[in-house]
Amino acid sequence: MFREHAASMQSRPSSEAEQLIVRLLKRTMPFQVISEGMLQSVAAVSRPFSYRAGEVIYRAGDKADDVYVVVSGAVDHLLSDTPTTVERNRVMHSGDVFGWAAVLGQDKRVRLATATCVETAEVIRINGAALIERLNDDPATAKVVMSRFATMITREFGAPAAAAQIVAPNRTVSDAPAAVPRPRGHATGLALTLYRISRWLRSPKPFLMLLGFALFLGFWYLSVQVWKLPRFREMPGLTTVFHEWFSKNPTYGLSFYTPEYYQDIWVSVRRVGIAFFLATALGVPLGLFLGWSRTFREYVFPVFEMLRPIPVLAWVPLAILMFSGSETPVIFLTFLASFFATALNTMLGVESIDESYTRAADCLGASKMQVFRHVIVPGAMPYIFTGLQISVGVAWFSLVAAEMVSGQFGLGYVINTSYTMVRYPTIGIGMITLGAVGYVTSALVRIVGDSMMQWRVRELALGGR
Amino acid sequence: MLAPTPTASARGARTQGAICIKDVVKVYDPDRAAIMAVDHCTLDIAAGEICMIVGPSGCGKTTLLNAIAGFHSITSGEIYLDGELLCGPDKPMANPGPDRIVVFQNGALFPWKTNLENVAFGVVMQGKMRKKEAYEKARAMMADAGLSGTEHNYPGEVSSGLRRRVEIVRALMNDPKVLLFDEPYRALDSLTKSVMHEALLEIYYKNNVTIFFITHDLEEAIFLGHRLVIMTSRPCRPKQILDVDIPHPRDYSVLTTPRFRELMDQTIEAVHEEARKSFEAGEREG
Ligand SMILES: Nc1ncnc2c1ncn2[C@@H]1O[C@H](COP(=O)(O)OP(=O)(O)O)[C@@H](O)[C@H]1O
Ligand SMILES: [Mg+2]
User: Fold this and answer.
1) Looking at the 3D structure of chain B, how many domains does it have?
2) Which residue in A364, A381, A385 has the most chain B C-beta atoms within 10 A of its own C-beta, making it the best mutation to test that interface?
3) How many whole angstroms separate alpha carbon B148 and alpha carbon B116?
4) Can you give the pLDDT of all 465 residues of chain A as single tens digits?
5) Which of the four, B103, B124, B161, B166, has the lowest number of CB atoms within 10 Å?
6) For ligand 1, is residue B35 a contact (CB within 6 Å)?
7) Residue pairs between chains A and B whose CB atoms are closer than 8 Å
């Protein structure tokens, strides 16, 4: 019956819109191979649609009726988590096809993924049932199209289970004539970031984060001030600490309104800043050479490995003997652990570089120095930044230890003297401030790292395709 | 799609890029384990030939390729490129250089450089062109290979098939005499592979560069090659050399011709025998 229908379809003069659809379909993987006539017939059951940024096209679990082809814009495709899912998240661009649940077996036509529009998108919707009907006019073509759907699903979405439901793909090379892969762009960085933030805000994560904080603060308040648990009774209470912190006239002399507070923060940040800078400036080159030159490594690495496990506190006496004043020993102690973390991670970074990159550079005529500059340094960069993240963390850790032992001013010093002077609420202020400032510095390192490694950010954003 | 220039279809239309491998031996770790990977291997490859190397896993194919490329030394024997000695008794290791460029099994585009920077890398490093000039030429060559629009993408952002093509263009940018392929399409699915084969032939018909191509895919080997060199199990040396007398330019229709099937049967027989030997010897993939 539909055979007649299709015939009448083909004789009908097709509109300009349909021509456009035909041209677009030709660029997609499943429809590349089929004849003009068949494409016309498919175009007849297709409808153009447009979505605004942020609009949900469908959700996992919805009934699947249409297959989608992206004309312009970008659509985020998030597969539900199943054990066989390799790659959950993908952003679709012009020419990409999604919504293939609509061509699965009758009882399987349920969405496995959620599709959300990232940038204003024009799409073509093709009714799955009608598509199958049209294709059945020409069983040979149908087989090819379906097996290409199956390939696409396993390859691009990592959902082999779903692909198996389409057809048993009987792929021989002659089934698949010239399919030229087409270049693809990427979603503009800003749109993608904004979209990710808005998705994060709409997900349960921000609430979980707030809930976590609330639980922590609630426990503090209840255990110290309400239940007065045995071990907690002496501790500064939540309200006491916050009251002191926000007081214009603090009992123990330190709050948001006193200049001393900012001086202590500044002194600590400055010490960490200097120590971190030195650790990076010396640790990265050392690590690069350790990784690069085997001879150098044989001389230096054993000494390095012997010094590295010595804890910061064990260095205190030596630091005080070596350096005069109170500032230099503190900076030296802060520097030490950072330096080791940075150098070690940088060295590992160099070792992690695949030999074929250096070989390729050799083939292409790069000199030894050029290989170092263009392969070794950028290749080690991801590890270097992992090292720097660790390095800021241990810098704060050692700073507080150093300030407690031999310092003047600074947050570690405040915490320690507040204890000896019985100014307990100030301990709380010092600790929370330390946490917040530490978090900010660590975030800064991450931001700098991301901006220096755009290639990595973009690769990860696309799920490392 | 496969429109060759009239002169380009004949083998050896080029005068440069002849490789002569003479009695090459490679023993790894000669003092202790002494693994012999290549044993008195002799092979002549004409300029502009597509020479396909097949053989069981771990037989020493990569070892031979690395010796030509200059990644490691040979124990004895000589390798010449256009009559010039690459490596021999007095100079056990060839210098790697842009006249012989390797396309690696897992791809070696620098992920931290954009596709365009990758393609321009060689000539910029050698100081042959200034950056601006190099980028212009790179852009033109990429356009020629149907890679327009991906210049400013990083390799990690494009499909694996596209990455392979960018890598080949990166090599051709240096006008090499020889391209050395080490199972470059191994990780690709058969659809992408078929596209890559046609793309490679298309490039070959334009450049006629000598191609030394290692593969374990017999269909690929016969479809692409002028000659098929079947290697023995480790230590490797040519066991049988097969002329593929199907005229170039070829396209996928040759797969269904009776001659193709015949050649396929002959190869399978020869390869199977070696594969069984190497399987029985417990050889692992290298
Ligand atoms: N660096 C090495 N040191 C010692 N043995 C090696 C080394 N590289 C490869 N081999 C051995 O040499 C043999 C040939 O390896 P290879 O050339 O990689 O084989 P193919 O590429 O044919 O699979 C294998 O048995 C492998 O284990
Ligand atoms: Mg190998």
Assistant:
1) 2
2) A364
3) 10
4) 333 343 333 434 457 777 778 877 877 777 876 777 888 888 888 888 888 888 889 988 888 888 898 888 888 888 776 655 556 677 887 778 888 888 877 777 888 888 988 888 888 898 888 888 888 887 767 776 776 777 667 665 555 555 555 433 333 223 222 333 333 344 455 666 777 777 777 777 778 888 998 999 999 899 888 888 888 877 888 899 999 999 998 888 889 999 999 999 999 999 999 999 999 999 999 999 999 998 999 999 999 999 999 998 899 889 988 988 888 999 999 999 999 999 999 999 999 999 999 999 999 999 999 999 999 999 999 999 999 999 999 999 999 889 888 778 899 999 999 988 888 899 999 999 999 999 999 999 998 998 888 888 887 776 543
5) B161
6) yes
7) 135
Within 10 angstroms of residue A186's Cβ, the number of other Cβ atoms is: 17
Cα angle, residue A277 at apex, residues A275 and A278 outer, rounded to 5°: 65
Any ligand 1 atom below 6 A from CB of B160: no
Q: Which of B175, B205, B221 is the last residue of a domain?
A: B175
Using a CB-CB distance cutoff of 8 angstroms, which residues of chain A are in contact with residue B191? 148, 151, 171, 176, 179
Residue B65 and residue B214 in contact, taking contact as beta carbons nearer than 8 Å: yes
Question: What single string gives the DSSP state of each residue in A324-377?
Answer: -SSHHHHHHHHHHHHHHHHHHHHHHHHHHS-HHHHHHHHHTT--HHHHIIIIIH
Burial of A435 by CB count in 10 Å (0-12 exposed, 13-18 middle, 19+ buried)?
A: exposed
B69/A183 Cβ within 8 A: no
Nearest ligand to the CA of B29 is 1
Structure ipTM: 0.90
| B238-243 and B227-231 strand pairing | antiparallel
In the beta sheet, which residues pair with residue A70?
A: A123
Cα separation, A292 vs B157, in Å, equals 29
CATH number of A2-186: 2.60.120.10
pTM: predicted TM-score of the whole model, two decimal places: 0.71
Pick from B175, B201, B232: which residue ends a domain?
B175
Record the tokens describing residue A380, joined without a space. 């080690």
B48 lines ligand 1 (CB under 6 A): no
**Which residues sit opposite B242 in a β-bridge?**
B228
Look at residue B1 and tell me if it is in a domain: no
Q: Whose Cα sits closest to atom 7 in ligand 1?
A: B28
- Within a domain: residue B6? no
Provide CATH 2.60.120.10 ranges for chain A: 2-186
* Superfamily, domain A205-462: MetI-like (1.10.3720.10)
Q: Are residues B203 and B149 in the same domain?
A: no
Instruction: With beta carbons less than 8 A apart as the criterion, state whether B136 and B59 touch.
Output: no
B104 domain residue, yes or no: no
Tokens of A38: 């068949």
Are residues B246 and B206 part of one domain? yes
List the domain range (segments joined by +) for residue B161: 109-175
**Cα–chain center distance at A404:** 37
Q: Is residue B246 situated within a structural domain?
A: yes
Judgement on whether residues B136 and B222 belong to the same structural domain of the protein: no
Are B153 and B278 in a shared domain? no
Instruction: Judge if B253 and B169 occupy the same domain.
Output: no
- Cα separation, B277 vs B286, in Å, equals 16
- Pairing outcome for strands B178-182 and B100-103: parallel
